[in-house]
Design a protein that fits this description.
Largest sheet: 5 strands, antiparallel
Number of helices: 10
Number of domains: 2
Order of helices and strands: EHHHEHHHHHHHEEEEE
Structural class: alpha+beta
Amino acid sequence: MITDIPTPEDFERSGKHFLHTGWEKANELLDSVDSFANKSEESPSDITGYWAAVQSQLSMSLALVQQGIEQLLKARVADVSPFLLIVANPRDWPQGSQKGDIAFADFRTIDAQDLIRVHDTVVPSKLSERFKQRFDHMRRLRNSIFHTIDKRITVAASQILEATLEGCATLLPGQSWPAIRREHLAAEPVFALVPDEDNAVTYLMNRELETVVKSLSPAFVKEYLAFDTKQRRYLCYPCTVERPKWGDDDTRLALLQPNTAKSSALYCIACDRAFEVRRVACTNPDCKGNVIETEGNTCCSCGEVQDHVSK
């Protein structure tokens, strides 16, 4: 009898863990470049050399994200039956499996190159051609990274971020990656050491998503984060209020919903909150903004409190 049979939830949990780890490293490397640019009047002297030096880290991040996507594919197959993941030929099963209990993990499971075929055979919703092409490309890269030394391989941090967002949208429909990240960060053991009032999760979500919005194409960001970079971007008042004492970022991840001259609401992708605004000219003579948050009477363009707007 087969014991310790994994559930779809087990595979999904494992897949998300790999995605988070790969995503964090790629984001960290991009943020390092961005932080330098913000603190120096000069551009990085050798950006090409920097990315060449961190190729080993990027390669490992890509491999982790690919592993996460494979686990999420297995979760969808396991939702039909986890036994579909076991290599079908009984001669490949562990010796003595017919004589007593044996754990599922002791069986050889199907190869990554067969996952797409198995998925599309047993799961009602088929995978897009674009997803299949990216999956196959990343699978080959991962194999090269783990099994040989190929100096021709160059991994971009944006590749890792895109694969994570597309993988989540494809394999976890109904779950947004920002929401998954917030939940993951909130559960991190390190945050037990941070005072609740510091709101470290809000701060980190703003930093991560600001980096992502800057690093990926506007079309990709709009498709997978529902964030239109062509719209005017505003300060999120709730995020600003919650900014920890040690946080100095001026991120702008709130957009008018809808994007009209009379719109009275902003929505922020970092904190997943909508809040009410008034359309009144800002009192700051140097600011041309007219989007004023109602609770704190704060201009969402320049951040100044408005004296003339009644609460």
